[in-house]
Amino acid sequence: MIEGFDTLRQGFSVDCDVVVVGSGAAGAVAAANFAEAGLKTVVLEAGPAVDPRDMTRDGPRFLARYYWEGGLRMLQGSAPIPTMQGRCLGGSTVVNSAIMLPLPGWVREEWAREENLPWLLDPALDRAFTRVFERCKVGPTPLTVMGRRNELALEALAAAGIPAGPLPRAVHGCEGAADCITGCASGAKQSVDRAYLPDATRDGARVMTCSQVDRVLTEGTRAVGVSGWVTDPKTHERTAPFTVRAPRVILAAGVMASPVLLIRSGIRGLVGSTLYAHIGAGAMGVMDEVVDPWIGATQGVGAISADIRGLKYESLWASTSLIAGRWGDFGSRYYEQIQDLKHTTIVVVVYRGAVHGHVKARRNGLPSMKLTIPQSEIDVVMRGLHPAVEGLMKVGARYVGTSIHGLPKTMRTQAEVDTMLSGRVRARDIPMTANHVFGSCRMSADPKRGPVDPEGRVRGVDGLWVLDTSVFPSGSAVNPQATCMAVSDLLSRRIAELPA
Amino acid sequence: MPEPTDGFWLRRATDGIRATAEVLFPANDLGAPDWRGADVVARTRLWLGELPPESRRLVTLLFIATELLAPLTVPSFGRFSRTSPERRLRALRRWRDSWFVPIRFFGTALEATMKMIYLSHPASMRYIGAYKTVAHPHDPLQLEVRPDALRSRPPYTMPPVQARKTQL
Asked: Which residues on chain B are in Cβ contact (under 8 Å) with A383?
């Protein structure tokens, strides 16, 4: 049963076997496993369910409704960097590009070695990945829904000597609407609100939306439930308090919200003391031919760099208003320049740099995040983007724009392209977003390195687990959704088997 | 436009929105909707109304600062909305391209916000030739739909790749 604001607005008090905070990649998978195991399960989601009738291609309005902080959440530190997370039933799986890549072997080995997590090398994790991929109908993006934008990105990468291919995504029957970021109105995307939560509710789970948790309830050293406020999805006002009591409390609220919940509940220690993110940059190539970038799979093609470990290339599109917010000049010239949008293709680089930061709780219950990006890592991003820009030029781009401050606004010559390697670009010069964030409640066998133990338990509090990407020891080097789901699948099955 | 029920600060924010929109999206003979045609002021207000309170305050502050404080960086003694369009345009360019990071961030935030609102109007999308393969019948932002646009394309063959040598 999925309950919305209208039925919950007066508040509620519920007892159950297990409460899951968050309905995204980690929470939905865990909830489905708990319900299947016969546990009386309650899922609490801060945002509303996304009714396809409410979906809009009006980017800013969709972000305002279904993203945390209206899509305006920022990381501070080396630069103000937007970081966007879904605040709706299904979490970010509803609003991302559905890319599903397994955790690279070298990252698994690194995490297992550095944090003493041998289960990461166990075939049980491979089986968890297989279960997740099957359930989400993961397959390579069909060439028939690429559209010219993805094809050109593929050709540009090939021309740069970077072998790219169709990205595996959790979609079934994609029609190439390029609407992933503002929700898939055609229902092709297998976000967890489609792939997992219906099974969870069929097995008896109660899913309560518009219910924002703000405390973990504890008695002595034991978690006994959570409390929070029912929140009006339109006005964002709190209408009534709620309490859910359960002997097992699962935090799957995401890298920002999970540590904030712990900190506000008086559970501190190393919580929030670490934060990692993928950084990157993008290039927009303007071709002679009409590309019509607004059709075709949102992110249909990609490549793992063979040159730079942890660097990945992807094609990209989103709502035009979001993708072209920095495009062109002002005034009359702007009108001429936006006519070029129909000729564009985009290649972005996503890089697992050696960045680090922290998450703190603000008084209003929102997170405050800081991320430090060493200059050496920005240089690597530029070295990674450079061949992609060269590739765009080789496949016939009239010019390439990166919107990076200090570089030529339009690059037309090799000399202009090479300015990317000048070493003068700083983090604050690059218009990047960091949507892949990790590690705010790091999992480690060493209590001095992480607040979460190898089974996902929060140290010092019985009956409390964290299962989202907060527990990743660092960046995953690929899109984190599949790993998040597989880890949650594996650990939640173990939690379900524990005696009551 | 400011509503009669708006308080002082919201009126100033609305003045800032209008003053910025006027110079970013001026009247033209290219067929592009101008700030009035794309209903930028009213739609920015609508968007502000949908934002969560903290974000709404932040963006409102951006426009209030544009209206009341920005003249400090422009050779002018009046509010931004009472400065000539030419001066406003120069100021917007200067902020966006500034080497002083806080000013640049202010300028790019202003630019991105206004362009985002402008480009999410059906008339702007029509002007740039945008269309979709899938209908979105309940969406207020209605775009042309060409269901066969992808299906009618010729079969695609993956390009051969000559892998590059290791760079690092």
From this structure: 167-168
